[in-house]
Amino acid sequence: MIIFGHYAFEIYFQGGSAFEDVCNEDDSIRLNDGAKRIFINTHGQNKEDVSPEFIALMRFIEYNEGVETQEESAPNLAKIQNRVAQIKASEEVGVKFMQRWEEEAIIKHDAKEEERLSSIRNIMNNLKLTAEEAMKALNIPEADYGKYKAML
Predict the structure, then answer these.
(1) Which residue in 20, 70, 124, 133 has the most C-beta neighbors within 10 A?
(2) What is the pLDDT of residue 66?
(3) How many domains does the chain have?
(4) Are residues 80 and 96 located together in one domain of the fold?
């Protein structure tokens, strides 16, 4: 697996750098998960070391729009640009994206609610406090007390 990042600033070396996971406290311990992280400066100065298609890809990643490519020098990038344009133009994809975003927001909200309920129950059971005392200990706004009491 390769994780690709782009940065508009230099990280240690000019142009790009590769890293593997090593424990900060003991560099003899490695994750050995096969993942490599590659940091690439989209403003790199070593254009002679990379292909014109790669340079066009870096510009596309950074600016995303308004970058024209010549199909003969960057045929794969032209395909990517066309696909991105199709997706952006598709109302159906936009609606699905927004629905998914809303679903994820609801899931996160529900998970937070469940976590709070679990914390309230744990404090009530372990410290023998009332629901109100547990919610106060957790800094839950008083306006929400009724909602959580109904869920207990």
Answers:
(1) 124
(2) 52
(3) 2
(4) no
